[in-house]
Amino acid sequence: MKRVRKLGVRNIGITDLPPLGCTPDLTIIDSYRACNDSVNNMVDLHNAVLSAAVRELNEGFTDSKFLVLGVNQAFMSVINSKGEGKFKEVLKPCCAALDQQFSCSNTDSDGKKLYSLCSDRRSSFYWDSVHPTQVGWAAVAPQIRDVVLHLAKF
């Protein structure tokens, strides 16, 4: 972050980690019913250290502003509310591999799909094992919008 500042950037937004324990990659273990609290606890520790580092940077520079974009909190808000009813199964991906050795979009040598797709991608928060859908990001974005607008004012 200091190197970016040295390049002349004065307003810097840093995303914290999203709740990695809620990705389908990890929630598959519990049939997509619950987040992995152990992984999310590690993410929380990382994000706390990041926030402390950003506070320290802000104390050291009066002509710059560093802000943490709260992706974690925004994701958890959407996940806990199921996007206020937009998402049927918020922890289940729309595109899922048929076997653990494959990933979404894999095909065999004959072109046969080695994955399945949900019937309505707009009802899924996650596209694949880790990436939100466009609708998922649209549900998260308004929650970090105010921080981005605040950063733009400096």
Automatic annotation (TrEMBL):
InterPro entries: GDSL (IPR001087), SGNH_hydro_sf (IPR036514). This is GDSL esterase/lipase. GO terms for biological process: lipid metabolic process. Keywords: Hydrolase, Lipid metabolism. Belongs to the 'GDSL' lipolytic enzyme family. GO terms for molecular function: hydrolase activity, acting on ester bonds. The keyword Cytoplasm does not apply. The lineage of its organism: Eukaryota, Viridiplantae, Streptophyta, Embryophyta, Tracheophyta. It comes from the Eukaryota.
